[in-house]
TrEMBL record:
This is Molybdate ABC transporter ATP-binding protein. It holds the Pfam family TOBE. It is an enzyme of class 3 (hydrolase). It comes from the Bacteria. Residues 1-233 form the ABC transporter domain.
Length: 380
């Protein structure tokens, strides 16, 4: 469990944040540039002084202004990975990793050298100098170095922001693996929703120094303020399901509550938890059961909410057996179909427009299962 309650004033900016997360996993701090994400993680790391702070991780109090306690940054045992890797250029990869390991020699080692090297795929890079590494490889080494410092918390401040899309895709699976294999809690700062979608087990949506909403991604994805950050094209429901059939690495069958969806997934594994994003722009609603369509995914449910999206469109939320899907329709369509709360509708979504990301297991799986009230046998 970690809890953070901080306040800090600067000219023209005020940070006032309280976060409480019960288990390990990845807490994503998500929000527009300037909302205070970096200031917050710098306060947690002890690099910036807050006006008021109470920061505790697993019962260890790192800062409590009321009691006058403040553990200095170098004693907090917090690993920090920045946008740029900040490796020692005069050392090779092994030297960079060993340096971190030596500095943590008095702390009981939860993560060994070989384990970190293997988890991050660094075997072939150990003798390379920093200038011989790609941006993605540098970030993997920076992650390894942070882990070998045996942190009680890992802070990742936009670790992929300086990488191009191909390099980001190369590093993301390693981050997913760390989340699933280790029990080190992480705070992940990003303004890329794609990264949040893949990594977060708990999301904190921030705006102008405040928390707008925090919780599971399924709830956050429906929050009206998310639109202002991700833009209208990226608004949509994020649902949690379980892979029923891996579809030979093409179209997996995913159970979401009582519903079944066909989802394109390359690395699907039967029984694995999966997070599925259905963009509001890709959803079609019908008020009677359509026939003779090529669309593979058809669900039925009841309209739970209709809200204005912009001048010409509405966002329609549909409850499909407890899961909520959001569709964007023109206001004309809302009127023509008589869309209103309680109306039965059919929800159509082309399989190719669905994005699915598997959660392999480990700590995050437990967090996710508990957040949706599933027993521990649910993923068997
Ligand atoms: N050292 C500083 N002195 C004064 N103001 C600062 C300082 N660092 C940041 N700020 C201001 O504090 C506010 C929050 O900045 P912060 O860097 O925490 O936001 P952020 O959400 O991390 O943004 P980004 O995504 O661009 O990194 C901004 O208004 C910023 O201009």
């Amino acid at each position: 469990m970690f809890s953070i309650a901080v306040s800090k004033r600067r000219i023209g900016f005020e940070l006032e944040v309280a976060i409480e997360v019960p288990r390990p996993g990845v807490v994503a701090l998500f929000g527009r540039s300037g909302c205070g994400k970096t200031t917050l993680v710098n306060i947690v790391a002890g690099l910036v002084a807050a006006d008021q702070a109470r920061i505790a991780i697993d019962g260890v109090v790192l800062e409590d202004s009321l009691l006058g306690q403040r553990v200095p940054a170098h004693r907090r045992r917090i690993g920090y990975v920045f946008q740029d890797a900040r490796l020692f250029p005069h050392l090779d990869v092994r030297g960079n990793l060993r340096y971190a390991q030596r500095r943590a020699s008095r702390v009981p080692a939860r993560i060994g050298f070989d384990q970190a090297v293997q988890l991050l795929g660094l075997e072939a890079l150990l003798r390379r100098r920093v200038h011989q590494l790609s941006g993605g490889e540098r970030q993997r080494v920076a992650l390894g170095r942070a882990l070998l410092a045996q942190p009680r918390l890992l802070l990742l401040d936009e670790p992929l922001a300086a990488l191009d899309a191909a390099r980001r895709d190369e590093v993301l699976p390693y981050l997913e693996m760390l989340r699933d294999e280790l029990s080190v809690p992480m705070i992940y700062v990003s303004h890329q929703f794609e990264e949040v979608l893949r990594l977060a087990t708990h999301v904190v949506l921030m705006e102008q120094g405040r928390v707008v909403v925090q919780g599971g991604l399924d709830d956050i994805s429906l929050h009206p303020r998310l639109r202002a950050i991700v833009g209208p094209e990226s608004v949509g429901a994020v649902l949690l399901g379980r892979i029923e059939n891996d579809g030979d690495g093409r179209l997996a069958t995913v159970c979401i509550g009582e519903n079944v969806l066909s989802v394109p997934m390359r690395a699907a594994r039967r029984g694995a938890m999966v997070r599925v994003q259905l963009l509001a722009r890709d959803i079609i609603l019908a008020t009677s059961r359509p026939e003779g369509l090529s669309v593979r995914n058809m669900l039925t449910g009841r309209v739970s909410r209709v809200s204005g999206d912009d001048a010409d469109t509405d966002l329609v939320q549909v409850d499909v057996g407890g899961a909520h899907i959001m569709a964007r329709v023109t206001r004309e369509a809302t009127a023509a179909l008589g869309l209103r709360g309680g109306l039965r509708v059919w929800v159509l979504v082309k399989a190719v427009s669905i994005r699915g990301h598997a959660f392999a297991g480990g700590a995050s799986l437990e967090v996710l299962k508990s957040s949706i009230g599933m027993g521990s046998d649910a993923a068997q």
